[in-house]
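Provenance

Sequences were taken from public entries as deposited. Structures were produced by running a predictor on each sequence independently, with no templates supplied. The record for Serine protease from Acuticoccus mangrovi is shown for reference.
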Amino acid sequence: MRLLLAVVLLLAAGPAGAQIATYEQGLIYDLDPPALQAATGRSNEMVVGTAQMEPVRDLAEGDVLRRAARPVGRLVYRTTDGKTSFCTASVIAADLVLTNRHCAYAMQEAMLWMGYLVPRSRVGVAQYPVVLPPVEINETLDYAILRTRGRVGDEWGTVSFSLAEPRPRQSLFVVHHPGGYPQRISLGGCRAADPAIEGDDLMHTCDTLPGSSGAPIFDMGSRKVIGLHYSAVALQGLNAAKQVKRIAAISQTLARLTAETEPPTVVRAAPSLSEAARMWAEIRDTDNPSLLKLFGEQYQGTVQAALALDRLARLEAATQPTTPAAKRSPQSREADPEDADAPLTRLAATTPDAGTPPTTAAATTALASGRAPFHACDELAAAPNDERRVWTSPPKVASAAGGGEAFWPPSPARGVEWDAIGEAAVEACRTAVKAYPNEPRFWTQLGRALDKNDVDAEAVYWYRRAAEADYPIAKYFLGTMYEDGTGVAKDLPEALRWYRSGAESGSASAMFKLGRWYQNGIYFPKDMSTAFEWFKRAADADHAAGTNMVGLLYDDGNGVARDEAEAVRWYKRAIALGSDSAMNNLAKQIQDGAGIEKDSEAAVLWYRRAIEAGNNVALGNLGWLVARGEGAPTDPEEGARMIYQSIARGNAHSRDRMVRGQGSRELHRAFQRLLRDGGFYSGTIDGSIGPQTRQATQQLFNTDKS
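Predicted structure for Serine protease:
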């Protein structure tokens, strides 16, 4: 047994056995942990001897220990007191992980991070939200089994368990995330104590730190898990793990898993020559000095041990530095990425920075002006309604031929529509945030990319961070999250607060949203005059939908005095801003001669333009014109097809007109044939809109639109 040389951290008072790395700040979505907080209380993790914990990233890709470490991840969670804490967890099934009970019992939300090997790098890293409450939890044996959202085991594999009785001085290794930092492996001096067993516990000398709770204790020979690390026993100078065999005796989940994978155990007093040869065949190409040294010690006296020590000597000779480490300049040390998280005994240091922005001339100019230059994040996630988005070139301004009023659509606005945001946007925007850590534009766009990819809670974090930095569109996005209850509890007063703040900061989308709330009586009584004021403010800020809505309210005399000519003017202005709804509305004005000269052919032209822009209401409106030959040749079959498609896509106006029996009998017969061919109607094709046809029309309208 080795003596205790250092107690690394005194944690805040908590439940007995708690051994968690806890931080006052930080989020479960942050890649790198903040500095460990200074605290007082009980010592729960210790270094036994010297901190012999090697970065797993230093192992070769095919190294047997690196393969064993792959199913082990970092568990990050927010506690009931709002702090961020770290433990370690092992993947044991497709969507299950094993950790300590004292890590799980106070969780409010949690995230499993897999493949976190290098500080400040998300390459190869994956996140899996944890579903609460735990599947199993037991205080006596301090274990918890948690379910992940997503099949983590399919991608990262699972650990294997052994029910064998641990032997005194048995060679072990531990894979863990001490302090929440990149994955480490404890090898040197890592053995079972003598005696190895104390009650339910496996006593061991493997080095751990806060954050190692829940780490798997592997048998070196079989590379199977025989213990679940959970605590330190300060008086004995040892660390303690719960035996897997004891957990499997009461856990239905673990009992099933060990029954599926555990072969009959053969206990030997000492390793045989054949075992040394078999193990050497697996590690003979390793470049890991600790593994070679450990092998030489465990299989001392065999030919394979001699080969291991010879390879170790050659590796050490080949890696001697040509320049003494003491002569390295301070600058080279600061720039060395491998030194970013070492040594782990300096866990009270400040959080590593997010990176240094590029120093190109464009970047320097942009930073001097307070804005980052155009980035792939802009190309993949910029919102079209973000007034502060960056363009690769200035947007084109619509102009009218002959100096008249502009109402033709301008060139397509830069920015990415919601449905076009892909997974690549997340990585691009994380890169942008890392390069320009003080740019709210990138925080907002990262939030939008995460929002689209259903990483809702983290999206709320980035929206909030940008909103609190007074970025207008982020306030609007944060308001929508509170309104919908996405990634955060639904809270209409909080949504309203952010919409108002966004509107006052200049977000036209927030102004439009407030108009909608007053129009529909959301949260407060319906008030069309106030709704009109907000829509008008949005329109004055060149919000296309707001501009179209001003036209509609003038058209209907709702919240403002009716003025059809003024409605036409606002519709034209909305068209210039790209509103396809305004194209449809202008077409209807021209069709009816309301506020503008009646012209059926011009109406058909505008309906077609609206349809080309994706407007479904225009498709139905044009169908009714074509069916009766107004502004186009009479064609009931083509008119019925347009109306049918429009209703199938959710056009309630055309549905209601058909159910009421509007249109000719020829149109009705053509429509009934389409209903029959679509499987909605089995009655007579007689052109009579009776109960069966009305029911079939409603079924068509209810068709899944996804």
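Residues 446 and 627 are 48 Å apart (CA to CA).
The mean pLDDT is 81.
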